Amino acid sequence: VACAIRLDLAYEGTAYRGFGRQPGLCTVQGVLERELSRLLGHPVHLTAAGRTDAGVHARGQVVSFETTATLPAARIARALRSRLPDDVLALRSAAAAPGFDARRHARSRHYRYTIWRGAQPDLLWRRFSWPVAGPLDEHAMQVASDALLGRHDFSSFIGHAAQQPARATSMRTVSRAQWWREDDLLHFDCQADGFARHMVRNIVGTLVEVGRRKRRPGQIGQLMASADRRLAGPTAPARGLTLMRVAYGPALDESNDDRESGT
Amino acid sequence: VACAIRLDLAYEGTAYRGFGRQPGLCTVQGVLERELSRLLGHPVHLTAAGRTDAGVHARGQVVSFETTATLPAARIARALRSRLPDDVLALRSAAAAPGFDARRHARSRHYRYTIWRGAQPDLLWRRFSWPVAGPLDEHAMQVASDALLGRHDFSSFIGHAAQQPARATSMRTVSRAQWWREDDLLHFDCQADGFARHMVRNIVGTLVEVGRRKRRPGQIGQLMASADRRLAGPTAPARGLTLMRVAYGPALDESNDDRESGT
Fold first, then answer.
1. Which residue of A has its CA nearest to B78?
2. pTM of the model
């Protein structure tokens, strides 16, 4: 009998051409499916809560798959650890409700974008942050971010339709858009029911222009109303972005409690 | 006229076969001398305060060299930045007193060893820490470390004479040997007038055995008196070790002030 499994992951995206499988390219999904298939003795096809782009990291990615293997569900993560490269960490595995789908059942995703504000580049954070020099008006950036909250058409931050899946909608509900400082780090926490490709990075690129006073904070509302990608700012680099956490409904969420504390 | 230059560096040692130049191998010195020679237009031979081993990192390495180039001394670091790989950071450069030698004139070196104590491996710290699982008696580790303070023969932590330079002495004066916690990180700060090869890592390997109650803290004094490497513990992994800072005498130290804040 096939059993549904939920697997929680962290990874450094630097060395990967993104999460999603691509023939002949090194992707997180490609590595995971190969090693899960070897471990479980049958082909594994997994579904991920967030298909992160090349260079984007994760601390709380969730994937689901089915297995007929007899290995206890909770042991899969540990058995996988020694097989995975050291930039992909299997945090935990558990049996999930029948039919559990990490992508379709996710209620919200929380991404964090990190900007490095130190005078010197940093050894530890250089792969996980975008260094931005010069003055930044962080208050203006927060005021502009407040306009993102709620349900909106995010077309102006989503890029060309050709890069998006067919029939994709650009309506999203943002429930958190918060800038905060941690010493030399400037973090942007963004949570929504879902994100389109490059959406967080385009938002951050635009908000940094607000911080540099190239745009007024009040322009963000107009920008969203325009639904015109050409009016927004540039795409911020991938390395500053991390998928922090995926939330599920109450029935599916029990194994999600200690996500962020773990990494 | 040849001018003495002091250059301060940070680097991630993961990809290098150590600091010191070795023909045909990728070393930090090899990369630096190649790029400095190209930048300055003449062969550059540098001297480093600490010849870190393969996989060991630095946040405050200091090197010295002479140049006849007309580029202002303070500009060398910036000009070097775009030429160096992204795991070697040129922090700052300055004109030094004539004859300045980063190695011979150093009064003390400060190394930090970092142990990861989190339940899960960590994405950010995995290259800069040694994960140690299970209980550790940190108080006993500190008591044992106190025995290191002062002037001693460190032969029992230094390894085979064949690995050391000819006529090297094993006498060192340790001025700091402090364990401290930062959330899931357990740091060991060790400062001395100098360190022999593997000395910090052998001390840490032995102190972790104290933490695991395989050794009593009081044995460290006897161990040093024995001057027998075979009685000490194993060598802790390189990736947990970072050269934090090198201190010079008052006349040479002026450019050393903001070392640790910068990285």
1. A120
2. 0.84
